[in-house]
Amino acid sequence: MSERTIGTAGPRGQQRTVAQRDARFGQLLLAPTLLVVVVVVVLPILWTFVLAFQDLRVIDLRRKGIFGSFTLDNFAAVFTSPGFWTALRTTLLFSVVGTIGSIGVGLIASLALRRGFPGRTFVRASMLLPYVAPVVAVTFVWQTMLNPQFGIVNAVGTSVLGWDDPVAFLSQRSTPVSVFGLEIDVPVALLTVMAFEIWRYFPFAFLFLTARISALPGDLEEAAVVDGATVSQRFRYVVFPQLLPTIALLAVLRFIFTFNEFDDIYLLTGGAAGTQVASVRVYDLLTARGDIGAASAQALVLAGVLVVLLAVYFRFVGRPTEADT
Amino acid sequence: MSTRPWTRDRIENVVFGVLRWVVIAVLVLATLLPFYYMIILSVRRLDEVVQRPGLLWPGSFDLSTYVSVLASPDAGGQGFVVFLRNSAVIALLTVVFTLLAAIPGAYAISRLEFFGRRQVSTLFLAVYLFPAILLAVPLFVFFSAVGLRGSRVGLLVVYVAQTVPLSIYMLRNYFETVPVSLEEAAAIDGASRWTIMRRISLPLAMPAVVSNALYVFMIAWNEFLFALLFLAEDRPRWTVSLGLAQLAGSIEIPTTVLMAGSVLLTLPIIVLFFLTERLLVEGLTSGAEKG
User: Fold this and answer.
1) Does residue A313 or residue B229 have the better pLDDT?
2) Which residue numbers delimit the ABC transmembrane type-1 domain (chain B) (predicted)?
3) Are A189 and A264 in contact (CB under 8 A)?
């Protein structure tokens, strides 16, 4: 550590002063950041707990002030409303499919681009576009492409692929599809937002897996080639085990972010047609109904469910080590 | 030609060799097609789009969509010039304030031993992973109660608070790669901590600072939820993201005009990204290689 070595330059008394001065300086340097984070993030979150126990509506804000009497009604309302359980199920389904899908596609992409070819730099960069582009722009393009009247997907579907009718991808709750004579209800809008989620976030997994793959030591794989291992065997027994820590970390990160996702679904469907996830429900409670207490309670329950799920995950899969982060 | 037997190894090499190119082609198509479609649609006429929806090249060429989307509402346009300016101002200010707080903060966490250092690191990671919607409720209520909703200063503070933790995390990794011996040499020459940070560590960390600045700019430029909550009722203050989202539901505005708006929203980000792609990727994944 630098401060200790610096300290040895002087006598013992000075050593302590250097360390003390460093400590004071460190706290001073962090003070502005800490102040902003505490005021804008920590205090508001603590305040959410207070709000969740009050009967408070947006229209009363100016008149009643922000401190009313305490009540448990909000939590009771959250747990007894059928909308909450539906939203929770949708959120879980969306998160699991979105997480597995984006990591799976990201892994396939990073493996396909592993060996060099002319134009790889450009292809790699374009893989990241869905992730860096503004969410409002890409959701708008998807909406337009999937539009039943003049979207290109339905134009190709009806004229080339022989669909009977255009599909309302973003506003149709479900449609019966017969598979081997069985009628199955397919949740159209939910599958579409899942596809969007995978499209937009596979670059995130791709980025981290590519970095990891390019840092893999080559000698293990060379030894496997000498031993006669095929491509798939080398992946299964040599490459994949070395990627597992990265995949485990990505799974946690992607699950957290997908579970909290708001923008994508709000912009694509507004939460209609069976796509209302928990965060969109919080927004609706807050703005459409102006029910602050219910929105706070719902948001806290959402965070609580996430914490419980993560605790279970860490309990059974193990905590990512310091080296992974 | 070859008399080699069809062993499993040979079959797999052929299959995966072909599959690799199929995957690359599908991925390139899937990632680039929406952006290509965006540009094409922004220069077509709406009636022609409705007549030939499957067309993948401009059947008509009409740049008046851009004039229409940029012009002020008084001149019959959508006022995107103002939105672009709003977005640029707030994104640049976010970058400035975030870096002013994050550079000293990251230096302190990576180099100085002090009480509470670990706790602060954990707090920042938690803030980064925190659901934005949970934060949105109390901030919305607070800003409404004190009558600050619609204030761009409020939005700026929220953006800075959300980007600083991530920024410190990215910069900290980089500061740690700067050799300690350089700082020691300066310390022996009598330089203070402040001088060491400014004259030695900061110049060496410049690549990380630049990539970090770009990342923060992108986050602020693309941000939607808080802009929606704070500024939705105040059209002259809309950012481009908010403006496009608010107008997208309207049936009076032709889709081609809005598509021009969405090109204007995306273009700065894509240009910035391709100019600095390598720097940005290194900054984002620093630490991931260590596995």
Assistant:
1) B229
2) 84-276
3) no
Assembly ipTM: 0.90
Whether the Cβ atoms of residue B178 and residue B186 lie closer than 8 Å to each other: no
* CATH fold of the domain at A82-316: MetI-like fold (1.10.3720)
Put simply, the answer to whether A123 touches B24 (Cβ < 8 Å) is: yes
What CATH number is attached to the domain comprising B190?
A: 1.10.3720.10
C-alpha span between A306 and A310 (Å, rounded): 6
Taking only the tens place, the pLDDT of each residue in A17-36 is 777 888 888 888 888 888 88
Give the ranges where chain B is alpha helix by DSSP (H): 8-42, 46-51, 64-70, 80-111, 117-129, 132-145, 152-175, 180-188, 193-196, 202-204, 206-222, 225-231, 240-248, 255-285
Can you give the pTM of this predicted structure? 0.88
Residues B38 and B91 in one domain: no
Q: Could you tell me the residue range of the domain that residue B233 belongs to? A: 73-285
Q: Report how far residue B38's alpha carbon sits from residue A138's, in angstroms, rounded to the nearest whole number.
A: 9
Mutation pick from B31, B32, B83 vs chain A, by most beta carbons of A within 10 Å, is B31
With CA atoms as reference, report the closest residue to B62 among B52, B48, B50: B48
Measure the CA–CA gap between B278 and B264, rounded to whole angstroms.
24
